[in-house]
Every structure is written in C-alpha cells, then in structure tokens.
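Action item from last meeting closed. Structure (461 res):
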C-alpha cells in the first residue's frame, strides 16, 4: 500500500473527536467494572484502527495499465488510483485488449470505489461474453482491492467469510504425440503435489490416420474458429477409440486415483461428441469441456443426457443469466466460469451460489497473473460449491515473483493459499513486472487521453 499522501482534512479533524468518544466510553465501562484503564491501554486498543483513509471520502482519480506478456498469456494489469494515495489492482482477461478497461475510465472517475455494486451496475453494459467482459471485471476487482485496503480486511471476509483456507488447483500439462511422454509429464506434476489434471487432446492429432475423421481436407489442419456443429467434421468409431486409447495410455502412467479433465477435443458435431464421449466413458474423466458452443443449450443437453462423462462449460459466459439457464435445465454437470469473463468476484460468487441450488459444482477457469489468481482465490474461498481452479503457470519460474505479500511459492502441493492481507492481499513487484512487460508497453503510464471518452450510455429511452 502506498503511504497516504492526501489524508483528508475531515479524517484528521475527526480523530480527536473519536478519541474523546473512546475515552468517555472507556471511562464509563471502567467505572461500571470498578476498574480504571490507563491512557496506555487506550492507545493499545485503538492502535489497529486503519488511519490510512477515510472510506466515505475516497474517490477514483486515475486508471492506468501495465501489460505483462508470457505469463504464459498476455495479462493487462490495471491500477485504479485514488485521492487518498492508495490504489487497487485488477486484471483484464488473458489475451484481451487493455482498451476494454481504458474505455471505462471516464465513466468511473470521481466515484467512490467502495461502492462496488453501484460501479459494476454502471459499467456492466460495456461487458460481454468472452474477452469483452475484461474491462468491467478488472475494474470490479480493483474496487474490491481498494475497499479491502481502506477497511483493513481481505476480500473473502467482505463476501461472508471463507469455507476453506486453500484452493485445490488443477494444472495443464504440455502435450506430446506420445501418450507415455504425456503421462510422464503429468506424473511429474503429481509428484509436485497436484491432485487434479487437465489434458488437451483433439482430433487434429488423428486427422491423418486413415478412417479416423471425415469431412476434412486430407492432410490439412481442421479449421479453427468455426462453430463445432456447423463444421461438417465428424469423428468415426475408429477415431473415437484412438482418442480414448490415448487417454488410457496416459492413465496407465499417472494412475486411476486422480481426476483428469479433458478439453479441446476439436471442432465436430453433436453426434460425434456423443460417439467420442461414449468411447471415453472407460477413462473415468472428471469432465469433458466445451465440446460445443455453450449457447447451443438443446444440443448440449442431449449430449449430457446421453453420455456417462460429466459435461462442463462456462469459461466464455458473461453474467449469471446464461449460467442459470444451464443449471436450471441441467444442461451441464459442472459449470466452469472464468471470473474475468463471468462478471468479477461478487457476480461469480453469486453464480456459484445459484449453481449450488441445482446441485452443480463450480470449477474455475483461470489463465492470468497472480493478480487474477488472487481475485479467484477470494471468490473461491467464499463459495461453498467451489470444486477446483485452473493453473496454467506451473512452468513459468517468475510468475510468483510478479507479486509480494503471501508466502511463496504461491502454489504448494497443488493448492493455493487464500491471502490474509487486506483487499487482494498482494502488492505488485515493480521490478519483476517491468522485466516482463509486453513489447512497447510501459509501467502504468498516464492515460489522460481516456479522461473524456463519452457516449449516450443509457440502455432505454
Ligand atoms: Mg477450456
């Protein structure tokens, strides 16, 4: 926390008054108990009161960005400055443009960041599914960080307290054409203490095996970015069996005692997904992820109802409503919001609480820096049906060093401890962040060009 340079006059003026009040109250209590409290005792009693700020006078004065690259993804970290010398941190979702946050600066200047919900509702209309939510969420996180700092409590405490002190994390593992090599890599993660794994295995790997895939141009990679159900690509029984056998060989190395989730199976239609999932039933998977677009809810429900592999989706969904449609109709077995898309710390807790009513657990997609990870940690700590959180950065040696505050390593035996410091519970390590800025980016340079961005923002007329 930066030292308070602009302590408001009212805060200074109030302090003797509060002291007088406490003295009187103490004297009364002391008299009632027949005891006398010395001035030293009174000083000790109030020494933990946070004098860094006057929350009711706090105002947002600036929003700046430092874009970190290679963490392993691109992470635009934002800093919201205030009139009281303290700041809050947030992060735009991995791979999204910093502009999503900067375009909101003019909308929040002068507002009190402790009014988190008021700010969120004002800027919510500028978010959307996928990366479009990045700016709204980054600001929401930074406001929580500020509110925690001025009131002197960790974010999870403001959400109602915690269900757990540490979060179980699943790790991604670099793949290989050889399932034994893949299995050995995963086994190394297991020896590090991880207890849940995720593997990406797609039909692209088998596109040149005769009779495995249909609808593709032989020898060409399957087109990315095309919606699954209109791609014209289908997997055959042979292809489905080949993919399942690959996972079984990984299982032989890593064992049957750990959950494995599978993602990025490829672009194909509903019937192919059912064929593939049925072949994978013997692999005892924790979940099969994002098999078709999340908004194709009728097709997704037929898949979920037909196969004995848990179906999971959610990393591209913005706000509660779409999650509720999935949960109310049991379209999926597991929801998987990315807090940086789903609407931030409070909205994601509410999404978890909603899913809980339908008996559905909440896993969390996460591919950011430790700023993003800690925002997730506070939300996950305070959400009962939290299952497991993603960690993409096991192989990035400087990832932990981007921040100071919590004990290192941040990830121990496959779990991340929930920070106990105020707000997010972290500070940026300026030196390390500067070493990993994206080319052409600077460390929280001024952004006056965004001070007067305006439009007619109303949603109704
Ligand atoms: Mg995914």
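Sequence:
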């Amino acid at each position: 926390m930066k030292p308070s340079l602009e302590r408001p006059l009212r805060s200074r003026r109030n302090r003797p008054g509060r002291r007088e009040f406490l003295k009187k109250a103490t004297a009364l209590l002391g008299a009632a108990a027949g005891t006398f409290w010395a001035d030293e005792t009174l000083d000790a009693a109030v020494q933990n009161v946070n004098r860094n700020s006057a929350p009711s006078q706090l105002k947002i004065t600036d929003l700046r960005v430092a874009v970190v690259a290679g963490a392993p993804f691109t992470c635009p970290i934002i800093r919201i400055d205030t009139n009281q010398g303290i700041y809050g941190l947030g992060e735009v979702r991995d791979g999204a443009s910093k502009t999503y946050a900067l375009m909101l600066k003019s909308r929040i200047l002068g507002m009190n960041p402790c009014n988190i919900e008021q700010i969120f509702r004002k800027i919510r209309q500028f978010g959307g599914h996928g990366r479009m939510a990045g700016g709204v969420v980054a600001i929401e996180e930074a406001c929580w960080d500020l509110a925690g700092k001025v009131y002197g409590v960790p974010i999870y405490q403001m959400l109602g307290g915690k269900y757990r002190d540490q979060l179980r994390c699943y790790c991604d593992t670099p793949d290989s054409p050889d399932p034994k090599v893949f299995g050995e890599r995963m086994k190394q993660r297991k020896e590090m203490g991880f207890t849940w794994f995720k593997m990406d295995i797609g039909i692209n790997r088998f596109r040149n095996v005769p009779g495995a895939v249909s609808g593709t141009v032989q020898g060409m990679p399957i087109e990315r970015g095309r919606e699954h159900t209109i791609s014209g690509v289908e997997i055959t029984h042979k292809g489905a069996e080949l993919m399942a056998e690959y996972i079984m060989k990984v299982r032989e190395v890593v064992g049957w005692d750990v959950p494995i989730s599978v993602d990025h199976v490829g672009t194909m239609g509903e019937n192919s997904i059912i064929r593939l999932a049925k072949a994978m039933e013997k692999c005892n998977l924790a979940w099969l992820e994002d098999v078709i677009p999340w908004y194709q809810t009728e097709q997704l429900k037929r898949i979920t109802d037909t196969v004995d592999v848990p179906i999971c989706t959610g990393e591209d969904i913005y706000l509660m409503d779409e999650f509720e449609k999935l949960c109310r109709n049991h379209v999926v077995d597991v929801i998987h919001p990315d807090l940086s898309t789903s609407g931030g710390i409070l909205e994601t807790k509410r999404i978890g609480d909603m899913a809980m009513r339908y008996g559905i657990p909440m896993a969390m997609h996460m591919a950011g820096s430790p700023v993003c990870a800690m925002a997730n940690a506070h939300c996950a700590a305070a959400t009962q049906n939290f299952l497991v959180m993603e960690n993409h950065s096991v192989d990035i040696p400087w990832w932990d060093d981007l921040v100071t505050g919590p004990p290192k390593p941040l990830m121990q035996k496959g779990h991340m401890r929930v920070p106990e410091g105020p707000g997010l519970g972290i500070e940026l390590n300026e030196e390390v962040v500067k070493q990993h800025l994206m080319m052409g980016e600077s460390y929280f340079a001024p952004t006056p060009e965004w001070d007067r961005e305006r439009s007619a923002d109303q949603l109704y007329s």
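Note appended to the action item: The CA atoms of residues 71 and 396 lie 7 Å apart.
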